[in-house]
Design goal:
CATH superfamily of the largest domain: NagB/RpiA/CoA transferase-like
Number of domains: 3
Number of helices: 22
Structural class: alpha/beta
CATH topology of the largest domain: Rossmann fold
Length: 443
């Protein structure tokens, strides 16, 4: 956050997003009603998740698809590698997917000497830089066009003055060759449709569609919460996702796959697998207050609206899912003890809740996470000790005024300076409190 150039790039890119979303929302006669419908549908899914998952599996397998249930990341990777070995895969083309980032698919494939190539342009860029995605929707949001040109100059000797159009053309040519030789295609899923057994992918570049169409084997890895009841529900969710994700009325490419290539069909994979990933989601489902976070459709709107994200950016969170929604779900997916601090990375201004297209009370869920961390006794002794003292002082005016400003400033300098941080100035307690000044003026 102290890198001014980084903050300039982030502010510029989020401003472009904000301007587009304003126009995107104009397509709605009643946006609030659409958000309420989407929220209600997601609640319905969470309350009946087992039913919808079984319905999806039954309908998907009817058309020759295969469903694999993975309890955690290790199990998902193990099953994926079993498929890779069965088809003797050497090259994989991979569409943009935060779920595959969550379980570190690229690293697992590389360890088995399988070439794994990202195909979304933003993902291509961060893969070349050995970075993780910076943003749920825009993986390279932290980079300028000059940064990208420099990366391609270093990796492929493209001119340092290459324009975005020239870089895109280069990547397109390179990927076309890879699609034709890839043994397996891997995608995520924006939605899984229960009543038709379908996998839905939404994108703007068409690379996911080619990752499905060219390879003989396709694997879709999706969290179990991605289920929606019926095909007609896409009429609600796809425009909401596009509007809040990129400001579009609807994204350019929207694909629905219902299994492997059928008799008489010319395109599509010979084999298609869906890996349904739990990886902590049932733990979150068991939390009565926080389970609504599973309704997230990964639009990224809460990241773009969050003053904390705008200050520190995506990599500062140290987790696959950044921003407000990431701060809610990561402690449940990856462990409260290790990631409880994310729930404190919030001003609780409520902007995340305000912009969420499915009306998740994100800022309230952050408070519930904080409560759980305390109840699970995960906070250090010094923190509990100091908050007990603070609480007693706040409940007693005489204690609050006791000691004067000298003692209070001494305590701040000697006990809070390291927590406050080297780059921020400690607040200075005034000689008199407002209460003391008020009583003095009243006499």
């Amino acid at each position: 956050m102290f890198n001014k150039e980084h903050r300039r790039k982030l502010a510029f890119n989020i401003l472009q997003y904000d301007n587009k979303v304003i126009h995107g929302k104009e397509q709605y006669d009643d946006l609030e009603m659409a958000r309420q419908r989407a929220s209600s549908l997601k609640w319905k899914v969470m309350e009946n998740l087992d039913k919808y998952l079984v319905e999806f599996e039954a309908n998907f397998t009817k058309r020759g698809g295969k469903v694999i249930w993975a309890q955690d990341a290790d199990e998902a990777i193990s099953e994926m590698m079993r498929i890779m070995k069965a088809v003797k895969a050497k090259t994989v083309v991979k569409a943009k997917s935060m779920t595959t980032e969550e379980i570190h698919v690229n690293e697992a494939l590389t360890a088995e000497n399988i070439e794994s190539l990202e195909t979304d342009l933003g993902e291509v860029i961060v893969q070349l830089r050995n970075e993780s995605p910076y943003h749920i929707v825009t993986p390279a949001m932290h980079l300028s066009k000059e940064d990208v040109a420099k990366t391609f100059n270093e990796k492929f000797n493209l001119p340092i003055t290459s324009t975005p159009k020239e870089i895109t053309a280069f990547v397109r040519t390179r990927l076309r060759e890879k699609y034709q030789i890839a043994d397996v295609g891997i995608t995520g899923a924006n939605f899984l449709i229960a009543d038709s057994g379908s996998v839905c992918v939404t994108e703007n570049e068409g690379n996911a569609l080619m990752s499905i169409s060219f390879p003989k084997v396709q694997i879709a890895i999706a969290g179990i919460e991605k289920i929606i009841p019926t095909l007609t529900d896409l009429d609600l969710f796809w425009p909401l996702l596009a509007t809040h994700g990129t400001g579009q009325n609807i994204t350019v490419y929207n694909s629905i796959s219902t299994g492997p290539r059928q008799e008489g069909e010319l395109d599509g994979p010979d084999e298609m697998y869906v890996i349904l990933l739990d990886n902590g989601r049932t733990h979150l489902l068991a939390q009565q207050e926080q389970r609504q976070a599973l309704g997230c459709i990964r639009c990224g709107a809460c990241l773009n609206g969050c003053p904390i994200y705008k200050g520190v950016g995506g990599h500062a969170y140290g987790a696959t899912y950044s921003g407000p929604i990431g701060s809610v779900i990561t402690p449940h997916l990856s462990g409260m003890e290790e990631f409880k601090h994310l729930s404190y990375a919030s001003s609780l201004c409520g902007k995340c809740t305000e912009v969420c297209p499915v009306k998740i009370d994100i800022h309230k869920l952050l408070l519930y996470n904080r409560r759980d961390a305390v109840e699970e006794n995960l906070n250090p002794f010094t923190e509990k000790f100091m908050f007990n003292i603070w609480k007693k002082g706040m409940l007693n005016r005489k204690l609050m005024n006791a000691g004067g400003s000298k003692i209070k400033n001494f305590m701040l300098r000697n006990f809070f300076s390291s927590s406050w941080g080297e780059r921020r100035e400690l607040p200075e307690v005034a000689p008199k409190s407002f209460n003391e000044m008020w009583r003095g003026n009243s006499k």
